[in-house]
Specification:
The structure is a single chain. The chain has a three-stranded mixed β-sheet with strand order 4-3-5. Strands 1-2 form a two-stranded parallel sheet. The longest helix has 23 residues. The chain contains twelve helices and five strands. The chain has a single domain, classed as P1 Nuclease (Orthogonal Bundle), CATH 1.10.575. The protein is 50% helix and 4% strand. 43% of the residues are buried. The protein binds zinc ion. The site of zinc ion has 7 residues, from helix 5 and helix 7.
Length: 311
């Protein structure tokens, strides 16, 4: 009896801990709610404009929801503990060679893990199979696809390491001031998940604000197409070019880069935070906006492919 009670408490603690951490700091797992919702906003706008019949099928699954509802777009993060083998990333070594897309596992030492690229394919098949799956199963598939397409476009979701253990200080940075106004370190992953978008949006900005801004910006035309694995490789290449130092090939923007460490690299991260230039967040906004729009346009394409005809 006592043992059962302890087990129950442990399970409860395991469930509550991530929520407790998330409530005081930005989760180091994914774009935060607003960027995920922006991806949904752009996809929804595209479908309504170009594929209203597909949009109606999406809407039939969503009911009262919208693809840009933060609760819908972020749902996959909220249920992570129920899907422990589903990774919201593809871990491609940032300093090594890119493995073949046909490699059985995206994380070599964790063969049971289903990485985001393969998960998108699996959930697309469920969404497509209207006769073989319930509406509830297909709604969950839709929400996973919405979320994971977004995650794969965050550069640090295509890379190993993912930067969660790399401490940085950006003078005046969004995540570098505590409630008392004191300077604190954050990690580079959270800067890319949250701070760059937040810096641009300010306190009043919403997914709706940013959705209109990106969708209406006709000079922002990222290419679409490719496979989900291709999108992960793009993220890895962007991280290599703009986020991590390459010890072999120094570049002119090295002041804006951090050393690759932590994760599965075997390299211990420095205990002291790296100080990045004060304009780090604004300087990297263009790349974030480009990837968010690209994710939204590609999400629309994934849904068109899955839902134009169903089986
Ligand atoms: Zn995620």
């Amino acid at each position: 009896m006592i043992r059962q009670t302890i087990l129950k408490r442990l399970r409860l603690a395991a469930c509550l801990l991530p929520l407790a951490v998330m409530s005081v700091a930005t989760p180091a797992h994914a774009w935060t709610r607003t960027p995920h919702a922006v991806v949904g906003w752009i996809a929804e706008a595209e479908l309504k404009k170009d594929n209203p019949a597909v949009w109606q099928k999406v809407k039939a699954l969503l009911g009262d929801g919208e693809l840009y509802d933060e609760a819908v777009a972020k749902w996959a993060d909220d249920v992570r503990t129920s899907y422990p083998n589903l990774a919201h990333s593809v871990r491609i070594p940032v300093l090594g060679t890119v493995p073949l897309a046909s490699d059985p596992a995206c994380i070599a030492d964790s063969p049971q893990t289903i990485c985001a690229d393969k998960a998108i394919a699996q959930y697309s098949a469920i969404l497509h199979d209207a006769s073989g799956h319930s509406a509830a199963e297909r709604l969950d598939a839709l929400k996973f696809i919405l979320h994971l397409v977004g995650d794969l476009h965050q550069p640090l979701h295509g890379t190993e390491p993912g930067g969660a253990q790399t401490k940085v200080i950006i003078p005046g940075g969004i995540l570098n001031v505590d409630a008392g106004g004191n300077a604190i370190a954050t990690d580079i992953h959270s800067v890319w998940d949250y701070a760059i978008v937040k810096r641009h949006l300010g306190n009043d900005g919403t997914a709706n604000t940013l959705g209109w801004e990106l969708w209406g910006n006709t000079s922002l035309n990222p290419p679409v197409g490719g496979t989900a694995r291709d999108w992960a490789v793009e993220s890895r290449d962007l991280a290599k070019k703009y986020i991590f130092l390459d010890p072999v090939t120094p570049s002119s923007n090295d002041a804006y880069k951090v050393a690759a460490c932590g994760g599965r690299t075997g390299i211990v991260c420095p205990s002291t935070a790296k100080v990045l230039p004060a304009d780090y967040e604004t300087r990297n906004y263009y790349l974030v906006s480009y990837r968010l729009k690209q994710a939204g346009l590609r999400l629309a394409d994934v849904l068109v492919n899955a839902l134009t005809t169903t089986i």
